[in-house]
Structures are given as C-alpha cells and as structure tokens.
Amino acid sequence: MRAAQPVQPAILELAAIVAGALLAVGLWTPVSGCLVAAFALWALITKPGDLWSSMLLAAVGVALAMIGPGVWSLDARLFGWRRILIRDRQG
C-alpha cells in the first residue's frame, strides 16, 4: 500500500499560480505582488534548485507591488486613477 502524498506543496503551488495570474491581469496588484514575492522566497528557502531565479522572481514581485497597477490593468478599469490636487496656500 502506498503512502499518501503531502498536500501542502500542491496547495502552495496552486496559490502561487493564482497570485501570478492575478498579477498578469493586473487585479489587486499590490496584494498579488506581495504574494508572488512571498511564494518565491518560500521556494528559495524550501526547494533546492536555481536560487537566482527565485530571487529574481521575488524582486520582480516586490517591485510590481511597489509600482502598482498600470494603465491597462483591471485595477485601473475597476477603481480608476485618483488625482491629488495640491493647492497653494494663500495667507
């Protein structure tokens, strides 16, 4: 009789795929960028293999989370651009 395979790595891989898909379409960009970076760092720590690709993916996830959504993203379509007007003080 075979032992059951652990489910945790499959769940983490599925969550990473979902976070990458959200980042690709530009939905919840800061959240999905942080998730991509977190999953890349988790893969860097737990999986043996190419360390540089995991570090690059984590850096790209953090950069996209800080930059935010682009013009053609779903975030821009759903929530719109916010304009901050700074007025001069007239005293």
How are the SSEs placed, and which strands pair?
Blueprint: H1 8-25, H2 29-46, H3 51-67, H4 74-79
Helix pairs in contact: 1-2, 2-3
> What series of H and E elements makes up the topology?
HHHH
**Sheet of most strands:** none
Q: What does the overall shape look like?
A: elongated
Determine Rg (CA atoms, Å). Answer: 19 Å
Number of domains: 1
Number of strands: 0
The count of helical stretches stands at: 4
User: For the residues shown, what is the average pLDDT?
Assistant: 86
Distance between the termini: 84 Å
User: Beta fraction of the residues?
Assistant: under 5%
- Runs in which pLDDT lies below 50 for 5 or more consecutive residues are none
Helix content: 55-70%
Helix/strand/pairing category: mainly alpha
Summarize the structure.
The protein is mostly helical. The chain is 65% helix and 0% strand.
Name some characteristics of this structure.
mainly alpha; 65% helix; 91 residues
Give a structural overview:
The chain has one domain (8-79). The chain is 65% helix and 0% strand. It contains four helices and no strands. It has helices at residues 8-25, 29-46, 51-67, 74-79. The radius of gyration is 19 Å and the shape is elongated. The protein starts with 7 loop residues before the first helix and ends in a 12-residue tail after the last helix. The model has no long low-confidence stretch (mean pLDDT 86).
